[in-house]
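SAMPLE LOG
Freezer: B-3
Tube label: C17
Construct: single chain, 269 aa
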Amino acid sequence: MPIVTISRGSYSGGKMVAECVAQKLGYRCVDRDQIIQKATAWGVSQDDLRTAIEKPPTFLGQSAHTKYMYLAFIQAALCEEFRTGKGVYHGLAGHLLFGKGSHALRVRIIAPMEFRINQVQNWRGCNRKEAIAYIEKVDQDRRRWTKFLYDVDWADASLYDLVFNLEQVNLQEACEVICCAAQLKCFEFTPERQRAVDDLALASCVKANLAREQATANFEFEVVAKSGLVSVKGGILHPSQAKEIANIVRGVPGVVDVELHQLELVIHI
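STRUCTURE (predicted):
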């Protein structure tokens, strides 16, 4: 069965749905904070990682390149965590970080504003006006974040396989439908889909290593992996640098061969 990603607005009931689905399917349930903790293995703090994925881009805040680096670490941690499938992830942009393909069932949970206001008031102990302001700010930040990184609208229904409005169905009903969908043949975790996840995990790990190493930390790369062959595009200025990049890539377990691309040039190292 596939990886299940649950995307939701703040206090929309997505966490409860994710926990219900995981329990019924016998999956592990992983949230954003667990992935952030795992991503600290790349040598950055949890606070910096959390800021990188929560705060929208600003001229006075962190740079776009900083976001690129931290996102590489988070994606590598996420893909490694779910490499064998059979997991539910609820957190920001999981449906985008896993890339395209039917190895993941992408679910969006929305809820009426009154439901969300009540949830925020109960959990944060604030008044109605404060709750509304909090919801609006978090939603705006997430929308700007996904637009900045992926040039998509966070709320665009076409990004998801299933969208549930908790005004029409309750949490238990949404959970039941998601569990049924996860068992459909179209989402079967076939060997081909396992290879796709393995390729994504390897490419993500390579990108994270390039972002961590001092020699390549100032550059941005497009990385694609297929059955151990890793193609890296961008940031290559001269042959000596190409060799250094290739050495970093080859140091990642699972890499069989490397191709480096700069514009139309392919360099075999």
